[in-house]
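Regression test attached.
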Amino acid sequence: MAWDFETDAEFQKELDWISDFVTNEVEPLDFLLGSPYDVQNPKNQELVRPLQDEVKRRKLWACHLGPELGGPGYGQLKLALMNEILGRTRFGPVVFGCQAPDTGNAEILAHYGSDAHKERYLKPLLNNEIVSCYSMTEPHGGADPKVFTCRAERQGDEWVLNGEKWFSSNARWASFLIVMAVTDPEAPPYERCSMFIVPTETPGVNILRNVAVGLDSEEEGSHGYIRYENVRVPADHLLGEVGQGFVVAQTRLGGGRIHHAMRTIAKVSRTFDMMCERALSRFTQGEVLADKQMVQEKIADSWMEIEQFRLIVLRTAWRIDQSKDYMKVRKDIAAIKALMPKVYHDVASRALQLHGSLGASNEMPFAEQVIDSFHMGLADGPTEVHKVTVARQVLRDYAPSEDLFPSRHIPKLREQALAKLGEAFEHEVGNT
Ligand SMILES: Cc1cc2nc3c(=O)[nH]c(=O)nc-3n(C[C@H](O)[C@H](O)[C@H](O)COP(=O)(O)OP(=O)(O)OC[C@H]3O[C@@H](n4cnc5c(N)ncnc54)[C@H](O)[C@@H]3O)c2cc1C
């Protein structure tokens, strides 16, 4: 029997260490520092670097990577078990060297970058000396990348980029951007675009503003609205072949989506803990909230949804480890991408409601989490698009009925059963 839901004892020791370390050393940073991506900020350097060194000594740095890129090559399942702890905090992923979108961008550079790119961009990225940005969505269309207009044209030894992108997260701190641009508007829709590395300091990379989401103040905005104006990059800054932009994008998106889901388990589990504590602590009309059936329903629904979500995420991680191919588990990844915002939204909303006015305030994290659940339902493609993928993949395993009625139509099945067993049945009837 191969079904086994236990973590091996040796790795469990690592997880216990990670849990203590995150609670005692990492979590305090969340309340004192600004963005984890602001790597040049002296305070970040002073407080984050020593923790990263400790993680490296423990050989837990960049666990999403194989040994050829400096990670331990633990695979997705162990990474999932780690991420469901790291995701409890804002700084956890950065302290352990596995934060989005740098993980996905590193995967792109590892697959498609030249030796020179790896030296200049990948190495410092993996060391978190710099951070990166993925710049794909355009203001007039994100869910349908076939309508992109940002252009890249070849001029001599250079590519020249012109156009607008927005929601380019972390652009303000990034040393380079990975930009998708149209290289041949006449090509078939999925061969029109190519992918480029663009150093952020290149003349013509103009960040018009840093868009903020939800409750964040304007100063905290981190989603760059960028105008690329005659931005020139060397010809070799093309990643992959001309027209392969979508193929290159897939390299990062599979991993990126499941890693978000792993961290979301951490967030909802913590929120659930808070909900339970509150239910047991708050008295109203002579009893604790936990004694009221409608509160019990919230607790039960939340627990069941989290457990289901966690199991499908872990099984998907396991399947990736088995197949070593994100495309083979496309259906599973699309399913968890669609489930993630719903579980997150529903659990955070119930926690907010159970905490009453306190829950709605900015002294608790729930309102921010509700907004963050929409982030999870939009970034890397909206939920609807992923549900379409799930349905299409599921339907591949089915065929239409061969005649007017369904193949499981009861009269038809009865007829088939009679054709097979009719004789024995007649014999039995004859004996009575
Ligand atoms: C916090 C945050 C961070 C992000 N970070 C990045 C980043 O770093 N880099 C980057 O390139 N992009 C980033 N994005 C952008 C994200 O990828 C897009 O928001 C997403 O692809 C949707 O595009 P859109 O916002 O233009 O929505 P639209 O394309 O306008 O779609 C709007 C809505 O229409 C509906 N819809 C769309 N298509 C379908 C369909 N086929 N069937 C049914 N309904 C549909 C959905 O409800 C969808 O939410 C980020 C977004 C957010 C919110």
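Expected vs. actual: identical. The chain has a mean pLDDT of 95.
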